[in-house]
Design brief:
The chain has twelve helices and 17 strands. It has about 400 residues and is of the alpha/beta class. Helix 3 (about 80-90) packs parallel to helix 9.
Length: about 400
C-alpha cells in the first residue's frame, strides 16, 4: 500500500494566504455591498511596462516562424538573459558573479522552496522571526524542522532568531550553531533592512561556522538608502557561503508572468562537493525554467527603456508606502518599514492579537491586511500592510482607518 509523506501532517492549518482568502471570501459573500480594499497579499497592481509588452509581442511573433521558433529553454536559462542579469545586477555593482552562475527559473518562491532539496535532512535551519512562511514550510515538508509545538507556535528543530522593534528587527547570532541560515532583506514582512556592515558580519559568521546563507533579495529594487546592499555578494567572502534568490515579480510586475533566478557561485562547496553542480543537476532534472517568450520579457527589464519605466513603477508603490506609513502614524499606530520595502509593519492595538486585529480591520473599515503571527511566533502583536495596491485605494484605506 502506498504511503504519504507524514511530514506534511506536521504543518499547522492551511497556508497563511489561503486562510486569509477564505476569510475574505466569506465576508464578501455575507456583505456583497461592501467595497473591500486589499492591502494584504503582496501582489502588484500596475500593468506590465511598455518595453516589456513590446518584447513579449516580438517573442510571440518569433515563435510563429520556423526559423525563429524555440522549444525547450537551456537548463540554466538563455544566455542573453543570464548575461544581462550578471552585468546589470552584479558586475555593475562590483559583484564578482558570472553568467554561468545564474539559474533562471519560473520564480523566486519556487527556488526558495526547492533549494533545500540539495541539503541533508539533518541540517539545522535558522530563520529570522517573523519571516516569509515558505522557508520554514518547505523544510517541514522535507522532515528537517522537527515537531510542531502548538503552545509556542514553533517547530522544535528550527532555530528562530527574533526580530522585533526591541532589537530594530536585526537578528542576533543564534546560540545554537545552524547549518542553513535564511535571511530576507529587504525583509518580508517587516520592511526592515541590514546595512552592508551588518550583512558583512553575517557573511563572516557563516564562513566561520561552516553554514550556508540562503539570501532572499526579492525586494532589492525598493532600496533607497546608500548603506543598504542590494546583493549579499557586495560583501567580502559571500561567494563561499551564500546563495541568492531574485524575482522579477516585485520590480517588474511579473507576478502573473513568472520569472526569477538563483545565483549559486562556483566557489560555494561542502568539502569537495560543488553546490553549483548539485543545483545544476537538480535544475536540469526537475526543470522549472521559464519559456523563451518570458525570458525575452525579462531581458527587456534591463534595456534603458525598461529601467526607466520600472523605476517609475517602483516609485509609485513607494509613494503608496509613504501614504500608509504616515497615515498609520497619524492614526496613532507604532509603525516600521516602508522606506526600503513596499511593506509597512505595525503594532496591533493593546489587547488585540494579530488575527483579532485582522477581523477588526476587515469589519470596521473593510481593509484587508496580513496578521503578523502568520509569519512566525515573534510576529504576534504585529500586522502587515502592503503598498502594492492602487494609489487611490491606498489613500481611501488610510482615510477609513484614521476614522476608527
Amino acid at each position: 500500500m502506498f504511503k504519504i509523506n507524514e511530514n506534511y501532517l506536521k504543518l499547522p492549518g492551511s497556508y497563511l494566504f489561503s486562510t486569509i482568502g477564505k476569510k475574505v471570501a466569506a465576508y464578501s459573500e455575507a456583505h456583497p455591498d461592501k467595497k473591500l480594499i486589499r492591502l494584504g497579499i503582496g501582489d502588484v497592481t500596475q500593468p506590465l511596462a511598455p518595453a516589456i509588452i513590446k518584447a513579449l509581442h516580438k517573442a510571440v511573433d518569433e515563435m510563429g516562424a520556423a526559423e525563429t521558433f524555440h522549444g525547450y529553454a537551456p537548463d540554466l536559462g538563455y544566455e542573453f538573459l543570464r548575461s544581462a542579469i550578471a552585468k546589470n545586477d552584479y558586475q555593475d555593482r562590483g559583484c564578482d558573479i558570472a553568467a554561468d552562475e545564474i539559474f533562471v527559473s519560473d520564480g523566486a518562491k519556487c527556488d526558495c522552496g526547492n533549494i533545500q532539496e540539495i541539503f541533508g535532512q539533518d541540517n539545522r535551519i535558522a530563520v529570522c522571526d517573523p519571516v516569509y512562511p515558505v522557508y520554514v514550510d518547505t523544510n517541514v515538508m522535507a522532515g528537517r524542522a522537527g515537531d510542531w509545538i502548538p503552545e509556542k507556535e514553533m517547530f522544535s528543530g528550527v532555530i528562530y532568531m527574533p526580530c522585533t522593534m526591541d532589537n530594530d528587527f536585526v537578528p542576533e547570532f543564534p546560540k545554537e550553531t545552524p547549518d542553513m541560515i535564511y535571511l530576507c532583506y529587504p525583509n518580508n514582512p517587516t520592511g526592515s533592512t541590514l546595512t552592508k556592515a551588518q550583512l558583512q558580519e553575517w557573511v563572516d559568521y557563516a564562513n566561520k561556522v561552516g553554514a550556508v546563507i540562503l539570501f532572499d533579495a526579492a525586494y532589492e529594487a525598493y532600496i533607497s538608502e546608500e548603506d543598504v546592499p542590494h546583493s549579499i555578494y557586495e560583501c567580502e567572502g559571500a561567494r563561499t557561503c551564500a546563495i541568492e534568490f531574485r524575482s522579477f515579480s516585485k520590480n517588474a510586475g511579473f507576478t502573473g508572468v513568472r520569472l526569477g533566478f538563483t545565483v549559486v557561485p562556483k566557489d560555494l562547496k561542502c568539502g569537495d562537493v560543488s553546490l553549483h553542480s548539485l543545483w545544476a543537476r537538480r535544475h536540469g532534472t526537475k526543470y522549472n525554467g521559464a519559456p523563451y517568450i518570458i525570458q525575452r520579457a525579462g531581458e527587456a527589464v534591463y534595456t534603458p527603456e525598461g529601467k526607466a519605466e520600472l523605476k517609475e513603477q517602483v516609485a509609485y508603490y513607494m509613494k503608496n508606502a509613504g501614504v500608509i506609513y504616515n497615515g498609520l502614524k497619524e492614526a496613532g499606530y507604532t509603525v516600521a518599514g516602508g522606506v526600503n520595502a513596499p511593506y509597512i509593519w505595525l503594532k496591533t492595538p493593546e489587547g488585540m492579537d494579530s488575527w483579532k486585529f485582522f477581523d477588526y480591520l476587515l469589519e470596521t473599515s473593510n481593509v484587508v491586511g496580513t496578521p503578523g503571527s502568520g509569519f512566525g511566533p515573534s510576529g504576534e502583536g504585529y500586522f502587515r500592510l502592503t503598498a502594492f495596491g492602487t494609489y487611490e485605494n491606498t489613500v481611501e484605506a488610510m482615510e477609513r482607518i484614521k476614522k476608527l
